[in-house]
Amino acid sequence: MTTGANDIDFLKDLPALSRRYVQILDQTLARYDLSGSLYYYLIKLHEFGDLPQERLVQLTGVNASNVTRAVQRLTGLGYLTKKANPKDRRGFVLSLTPQGTTLYPVVLECLQTAQAQFLAPLTAAERQQFQLILQRLAQ
Predict the structure, then answer these.
(1) Is the whole model's pTM more than 0.85, yes or no?
(2) Is residue 46 a part of any domain in this protein?
(3) Each residue of 94-111: b (16+ CB within 10 Å) or e?
(4) Structural domain count of the chain
(5) What angle is formed at CA 17 by the lines to CA 24 and CA 67, rounded to 5 degrees?
(6) Is residue 81 part of a domain?
């Protein structure tokens, strides 16, 4: 029995899988003018409260310029406020607006919907196993 390239390189499907999930998530969040690249900031600010923008960069592991663009977009949508940081004149403190706070449970619902749609081809046992495997690989 010979082993072919497809048998060895089965991880090549991961980027396509990721794109598929992001596409589903983007469709689910679109009615709120959010995307898979924006919702995460709302979640972090809800979980941690007001944060210096630099701390949000650390918590998300996203490039600072990408965080700046996301903050501008979310501020423009009325979901965040950005105030001068009294402890660091060069930085800003980010806060959820009441509209951003109200949106938090809606975002969680969207995540559940997108995940359910993405995982629909799997049985309940396969979904549980998939989650455990992903968590193990992410460590």
Answers:
(1) no
(2) yes
(3) bebeeebeebbeebeebb
(4) 1
(5) 65
(6) yes
